[in-house]
Amino acid sequence: MNPSIPNPSLMPATLPRRLLALFYDLWAVIAILAMVGYACQRATGGQLIATAGHVETAWWYQPLQGLVLSAYFIASWLRGGQTLGMRPWRLRLVRVDGGRVRFAQALIRLLAGAAPLLLLELARVSSTSVALWAVLIAWVIYFAWALTNARRRALHDVIAGTEVVRIG
């Protein structure tokens, strides 16, 4: 089967199911970040965050958070195609031909899905609220794409050659 042609036997996930799974994953992300923060606080003897006049974190802390979260999502997608949030909603990430996601696809999907976070840099020249709204609007566009796509694929899935399907 041609990998550029979606597998008609796989039922694409609806947008509400995907958003509910994403909401569940938010809780997993919060828990992971809390554990990373706790471990880093312990490792630095409580010196990870300095508050001398204004809050300042170690330069390596945010990249470490990004690396750990990236590892969670990529490992979940490669090891069964499901994050914790996708499991209760019976969703799975697959290639468009129905096969298992490859590492390169998982990485592309992660980078494409996280790209709107770069808009947070707008806070340097504007305000935090403008930057947050910009990120939210970008993600709305990503998921609105699924409303116009025949296989309900969001923009980051189209870019990565993946699809979220219902199982069972």
State the gist of this model.
This protein has 168 residues and is mainly α.
Helical coverage, percent range: 40-55%
Count of helix runs: 5
Low-confidence stretches: none
Described by the principal axes of the CA atoms, the overall outline is globular
Q: DSSP strand (E) fraction?
A: 5-15%
Number of strands: 4
- Average per-residue pLDDT, rounded, comes to 91
The H/E string reads HEEHEHHHE
Strand order of the largest sheet: 1-2
Taking the sheet with the most strands, its summary is: 2 strands, antiparallel
Helix/strand/pairing class, anyone?
A: mainly alpha
Distance between the termini: 23 Å
Compute the gyration radius: what is it? 18 Å
Structure report:
The structure is a single chain. It contains 5 helices and 4 strands. The chain is mainly alpha-helical and 168 residues long. The longest helix is centred in the N-terminal third of the chain and has 29 residues, at 15-43.
Structural key phrases:
two-stranded antiparallel ribbon; 168 residues; mainly alpha; 4 strands; globular
Helix and strand arrangement:
Elements (H helix, E strand, L loop, with lengths): L14 H29 L5 E2 L5 E2 L3 H18 L12 E5 L7 H12 L13 H21 L6 H6 L1 E5 L2
Antiparallel strand pairs: 1-2, 3-4
Helix pairs in contact: 1-2, 2-3
